[in-house]
Write a structure and sequence with these properties.
mainly alpha; 15 helices; about 0% strand
């Protein structure tokens, strides 16, 4: 039974703060105000959801993964095949992607639980590579290297049809992203979430005080896989195409880079990282199409060497000085 201090802490953590409310209001305001950027914003919402799913296992449970794209890709292929062979209803497709990815996560969680960080990195990477090769070889089902084509989605709730400019797709992705973020937030501010932090910080001590470590890690790994599967399903439904790229290593690496930029162990880190990563990618790919990956790598090295906290403190210091001058004026 949780102590009063723990209950009080959970209650404090569970409150929605003003910056959070302003953030989601700004996201909602982007629907009517940034219509020309809806395609890019759709991509940001999808990769941010994917980064949040990775943060659940890396930042809260301490499970390092190089193959999280396995669940993203499984969700994408499940939603695409479901639309072709069963029904093209978008919401049912999301459930199909989540269930397939969750099953895959549950089945592979027993492999991930065996060993420490390096073993987990290799196992998760191996699972993603195996799935990628299966998708490549099973061309009659997945389309192989040509990709899964013929994914046509019905209007959402029978009323809102996907359009070429991505307006409906963005609203759809943003709503799904927000709902799953609320679920993830609720998980991490629950007693279950606190037990994950205890496991992350010291698994032996957590086991000694009676926390069922393996069960908790299996549960969060499965939940994280399901959320990653929904992110993949959203990509398949909005693009109406699925390629082997959804299972590629760079998908997992990009999610890790987003968490490096935004920080782990708090859900907004994945969102901040996704926005920063995509904005940097868009700017640098226009500025220097051939060497944009070099500059992103250089920026990441600088972030690691200088430290996010120092950069954040520097930005806040400049902002405070500007406010001070503005106030004096």
């Amino acid at each position: 039974m949780p102590s009063k201090a723990a209950v009080s802490r959970l209650s404090t953590l569970g409150r929605w703060r003003l910056p959070e409310i302003l953030f989601w209001l700004a996201a909602a305001a982007s629907v009517p105000l940034l219509t020309e950027y809806h395609l890019v914003l759709t991509e940001i919402a999808i990769i941010a959801l994917f980064a949040v799913s990775l943060d659940l296992i890396l930042g809260y449970a301490g499970i390092a993964s190089l193959g999280h794209a396995a669940f993203f890709g499984a969700g994408a292929y499940a939603a695409g095949l479901f639309a072709i062979h069963v029904t093209n209803d978008p919401l049912l497709g999301l459930f199909a992607g989540a269930i397939v990815a969750a099953f895959l996560g549950f089945a592979t969680s027993f492999l991930v639980l065996r060993g420490a960080d390096l073993t987990r990195l290799m196992v998760t990477l191996g699972v993603a590579l195996v799935l990628g090769e299966i998708a490549n070889k099973a061309g009659k089902i997945t389309g192989g290297a040509d990709g899964l084509q013929g994914v046509f989605m019905a209007p959402i709730l029978g009323r809102f049809e996907f359009d070429l400019f991505g307006h409906v797709g963005y609203v759809y992705c943003l709503v799904v992203f927000f709902l799953l973020f609320v679920v993830a937030r609720r998980i991490v501010v629950s007693p279950f979430g606190l037990s994950l932090l205890a496991i992350r910080d010291n698994p032996l001590r957590a086991r000694a005080i009676g926390i069922p470590v393996n069960n908790r890690l299996t549960a969060i790994y499965t939940i994280s896989a399901a959320i990653a599967g929904v992110a993949g399903a959203l990509l398949a439904q909005t693009a109406q195409f699925v390629s082997l790229d959804v299972l590629a290593f760079h998908r997992s690496a990009d999610a890790l880079l987003m968490l490096v930029i935004g920080g782990t162990g708090y859900l907004y880190g994945g969102i901040i990282g996704a926005v920063a990563f995509k904005v940097l990618q868009e700017i640098l790919s226009v500025w220097t199409p051939q060497y944009w990956t070099f500059w992103i790598g250089a920026i990441l090295v600088a972030i690691v060497l200088i430290g996010r906290q120092r950069i954040g403190n520097g930005v806040m210091g400049v902002w405070s000085r500007l406010l001070g001058k503005g106030g004096a004026a």
